Amino acid sequence: MPDLTVEMVQRGRGPSTEEAARRLGVAREIRSAREKLTSQTGLERAFDYELLRHYAQYRAGAGIPLVGFAAALAAAATFWIAPPVAAAWALGVFLMITLNTTLSRRFLNTDPGTIPLGRWRRRFLIGEVLQSLSWSAMIGLGATGGWTFALIGLVIASAVTTMLAATVPLAAIAALVPLALATASLATFSPAADGLLLVTMAGGAQLFFLGLSRRLYAATMGALRSRAEKDAVFGELEQAKANSDEARRRAEEANLAKSRFLATMSHELRTPLNAILGFSEVMKNEVFGTHIAPSYREYSNDIHDSGLHLLNLINEILDLSRIEAGRYELNEEPVQLAHVVEECRHMMGLRAKAKNQTFHDLVDDALPRLWADERALRQIVLNLLSNAVKFTPPGGEIWLKVGWTASGGQYVSVKDSGPGIPEDELGTVLSSFGRGSLAIKTAEQGSGLGLPIVKGLVELHGGQFQLTSKPREGTEVVVTLPASRVMDTLPPVEIDADPPAQTTLNRAA
Q1: Is residue 1 in a domain?
Q2: 151, 247, 453, 466 - which has most CB atoms within 10 Å?
Q3: How many other C-beta atoms can be found within 10 angstroms of the C-beta atom of residue 252?
Q4: CA pseudo-torsion sign 452, 458, 463, 468
């Protein structure tokens, strides 16, 4: 069976952040491609509708100014043509403007979900062509000597048309073709060089307006894409928030269920466990007489040791649960860190001696007291020393250091010459019930709760936990307690033996 790693655990819990982002991007691309396949312009349907909506808004808002412009041209054209002819031309232009304005308003008033975009695009295209043909009727002024005026009018009409139809490129091109042909036909009314030059410049201006409309179309597309991406991000954030709220709710329910389970099981397990420990100790010590079979005494020892192991495991699980739930209360008091470490080293000395291990102590006995929980500190040091003794091979060495930190705090360092931990398994050993692969192969059995409990207790004291290890080079754990927990020694109070004269006089009085 392969060794369990952090990556395997993460994959078992769900996709990683990078994998989730990749899946989200793929889903977005698939959705975009599907919408493009159902569109006639190769864009997403939302973009198709937005472009047509922009066009309809431009056309609906430009109706009155265009009518005024047509009326001004018709009034000026009376210098070359009869007023009834100019009025008839203005009426035709007015009808086409009214047609396009009406179509645009109908489009804007229709439900976006039921709009046939292809049909409306064709309607707008036909309306643009008809309106351009009505503007192109100004070429009749060429035969009456007003060709220059007609040329200027056609250029202005081209500029207005291409700008208004910029969001529908095909409509802009279709609308510009009649105007360009009308502009070119004016050259027949003025074959002179200056007339041809003016017509050429007008044609160039129309091409410029067409290019400018393409730039406006690109800018509009960029704005639409930016807004679509922003909306997508907002939607994803809302979905992520909803998922987070649901996950938090489930986590709270699971944590409550876990707390209830541990509270129930601790009672249910401790009750029979006390009986097992008590009776096994009676049988182990042969209180009621010597066992007939010597194996029974060995069995009693095994039962008692297994019961103690189970009791320690239950206590560790409960401690870790209280730490994770934030319900572990510190009983703080002045504590001499060096004395706590010395007591723990003495307790673990027999186990180290049985494995022929050597302790190297570098403890500063002059350290001032700490304001901390003595039981928690003792558990921290015992867990670290227990791991060091457990994972160090027979004949190995263990270094124990206690001293000052650079910031004025105090630290405890435990280093061993054991097998070490690979870098990719450091996260595993710090997780609940996590154990490194080399430790599993070379060390005794354990619950995998020692380091998580140490880390939790250190963080409750506001300290820092640092674990460094390399395979075949050993492991070092450094626990740092902050300077705010170091108790400063108060200076001695100086008492003057001779009271002041004024004080003596006051007492005499």
Answers
A1: no
A2: 151
A3: 10
A4: negative
Residues 6+ apart with CB under 8 A from 504: none
User: Position of tokens 């103690």?
Assistant: 308
**Residue labelled with tokens 């073709």:** 177
Q: How many domains would you assign to the chain?
A: 3
Domain-located, residue 9 = no
The answer on 191 and 271 residing in a single domain is no
Entry field: residues in the chain: 509
Evaluate whether 115 touches 49 at the Cβ level (below 8 Å).
yes
* Residue among 1, 128, 140 nearest 66 (CA): 128
Structure-token pair, residue 120: 């409306």
Last residue of a domain, one of 207, 239, 271: 239
Six token digits for residue 27:
């889903």
Least confident of 79-83, 351-355, 443-447: 443-447
Same-domain check for residues 424 and 350: yes
Is residue 467 within 8 A of residue 475, CB to CB? The reply is yes
- Could you tell me what percent of the chain has a pLDDT over 90? 12
The verdict on 73 and 118 lying in the same domain is yes
Write out pLDDT tens, residues 299-343: 888 888 888 778 777 777 777 777 766 777 788 899 998 898 998
Distance CA 153, CA 135 (A): 8
Residue 497 in domain: no
**Per-residue model confidence (pLDDT) at position 440:** 57
Do 340 and 395 sit in the same domain of this protein? yes
Q: What is the pLDDT of residues 62-120, one digit of tens each?
A: 889 999 999 998 898 888 888 888 899 999 999 999 999 999 999 999 888 788 888 89
Q: Are residues 286 and 365 in the same domain?
A: no
Q: Which residue has the higher pLDDT, 459 or 259?
A: 459
Q: What is the CATH number of the domain that holds 452?
A: 3.30.565.10
* Sequence-ordered strand ranges (E) for 284-425: 332-335, 358-363, 370-373, 397-404, 410-416
Same domain assignment for residues 19 and 71 = yes
pLDDT at 13: 46
Question: In which domain, by residue range, is 291 found?
Answer: 258-324
Statement to judge: residues 161 and 295 lie in one domain: no
Residue type, 362: L
Of 92, 32, 106, 104, nearest in space to 63 by CA: 104
33, 29, 55, 56: which is closest to 44 by C-alpha? 33
Query: What pLDDT is recorded for position 444?
Result: 55
